[in-house]
Fold:
Amino acid sequence: MYKNLIRKFSDNFDALRSLVDLINPNLLKDMFGTVKNYKEEGMVLLHVISKMDPQFQIPADKIPIDEILKKHDLKLKLKKEKDGKVGMTIVGGKNAKDFRFDEALAAISKSMAQQSLLFHGFFITSVSLSESFLSQVIFQYFSKYQHVDGCDEKTIKFKELRTFDSLEEVKNYLVESKVLEIMRGGFEEWVNFLKTFPKISLSGYLDADKDRLVEVFQRRNVWVHNDGLVNGIYLSKVSPELKKNLKKGKELSITPVYIRNSMNLLERNFLLMTLELWKKLEPENEERAEIIENVGFRHLNEERWQVAKGLYYFGMMDKEMPEGRQMVAKINYWQCCKWLGEFKSVEDEIKNADFSAIDGVYSLGRFALLDDFSSLTRDLPDAIKAKDLKLKDLETWPLFKEYRKSPEYEKVLKKIKPIKKKK
Structure:
């Protein structure tokens, strides 16, 4: 039901992440190029920027600031303003006339503005993608179940009715009106709708992330409607823990780290909300397990452990899915816990797991999780030969990443991988 929507949403997020990773280094390169052009003037500016706005992550400790100021007879004064920002004053002595500070400032300010605009654009786009995704999910829900949740109570004026060519168009118009009504309510209203009407359970994961999700949407609103400055609405909606030291009028920064973290948060929760709804509507649809494996494995490979953990936890708890799919989800959930430093929470469960009656790949997964490399080395050749595990999986699955660093791995490869003879 939601397979294609989920894949498109996840693909869009991956494309956006790639853009952030591609553009951020180039922007920093451009800024440092400007610094190089202005040499000492630029280095003084980098020092000032790092003090005024830490989001630019400039290695100010490597700048010989004292030496430059002394050489040009300059004094630099940094003062913290009431709004939390840092103000700067530079005073030049008689030897400072050739110091091109204003010219360098204009050039670097342009680079900073470009960087800021792009980061804000990336962030706002990620939130908009999430909203659009959820609206399509709800639209499909109403399209299939029009008689529920007040959708059948929507009305249309006769003059509006005359503009449509078919009953199907009228139906879509009414559904779209209902979806728009829900989406106007904001994040907390969306959650309330899903809990109240489809009556899906979200408490297993959403409760832990709800405050951070509210903050993300409020930060987006602040940037769209208030030029990024904290306002009363933000302060009233965001939890105390997430608004420490924030006052009205202070600018909320958008850094690459914040963008990545908020994207992971949004993708994990919006996918889980959709999967819960899908399970409610079509409990036996095995496409759900397939998309969890595909999307989850992509996050495993990129080491986005929290996103993958949420998806695989859902997969292992989805009891209507085939046992094999549940077991793969469980092993991947366990490895996410391991890489997140939460191994103690699942260690006993892994040690006590009995996979003797099912496919050998699960026993191999257990050995890998427990770092039992000797058992892995013993059983891997037979597992590859029996096609319980593909060689490609051994070489790429993050489950085996620690084993691939071990001497045993090289030994077992010689047994299972053909050695190409030199010509």
